[in-house]
Amino acid sequence: xxxxxxxxxxxxxxxxxxxxxxxxxxxxxxxxxxxxxxxxxxxxxxxxxxxxxxxxxxxxxxxxxxxxxxxxxxxxxxxxxxxxxxxxxxxxxxxxxxxxxxxxxxxxxxxxxxxxxxxxxxxxxxxxxxxxxxxxxxxxxxxxxxxxxxxxxxxxxxxxxxxxxxxxxxxxxxxxxxxxxxxxxxxxxxxxxxxxxxxx
Length: 200
Description:
Elements: H1 13-16, H2 19-36, H3 40-56, H4 61-68, H5 72-85, H6 88-110, H7 114-125, H8 135-165, H9 172-196
Helix pairs in contact: 2-6, 3-6, 5-6, 7-8, 8-9
């Protein structure tokens, strides 16, 4: 399994855009999808637009699918919940919006170096330092968050491989509990590392 949002070097239109432009564009796109996608035709148009964006970034369908695959279990759970309580039509729209949001965020990280992204965010937040805000700590938090994404994907992959090795059927109890435990252990490791560096 390819880790979510791992930078892919390139010289496409998206690669050449500044990180700030891409982050603002991501925020606008996610807001627009959340506000205006209310029907299946609108969802289809949004999906075509996102597919065109991936084409601009030189990212093929296989790589795009790898970005969505780690979220499939969560999306399936939400889909079933929505079908039960609101109906299939609403379920498709809700899950579609969430899926498009995930792969929109992924196209930014696929075409932007993490260091460039963090530098841009730090510069944007630097005026807050006048008011006593620890911008450096915010940058560290963002770096840890971005680093945690592929780690969580790796944890999910390891749990799923262990489940297959034991011949167990996939299910919430089999998959969710070990993933949560693994995530908590990872968080403890992060906390210990930060405390050791005096950032408690």
